[in-house]
From TrEMBL:
This is phosphoribosylaminoimidazole carboxylase. It comes from the Eukaryota. Keywords: Purine biosynthesis. Coiled coil: none annotated.
Amino acid sequence: MLTRLDGVDSLLSIVHMPRSVPVATVAINNSTNTALLAIRMLGISNTDLVSRMSQYQKDIREENMVKGKKLEQQGWES
């Protein structure tokens, strides 16, 4: 199984797209970011998705703030 493309996939996605065609490159083996991008796109016409995405972002921010505080207090080696 191919696990690493060293950026070639990103390069190809940009080179082969004509101008005026939006391109989004997401990482292989990173379904979370792919799903979040899809939700943002679908949210254009779905207010429920927009509010759920907003709540998810708030939750993730809070999680990351807690992790950041822990790193400040204990250091990255703990």
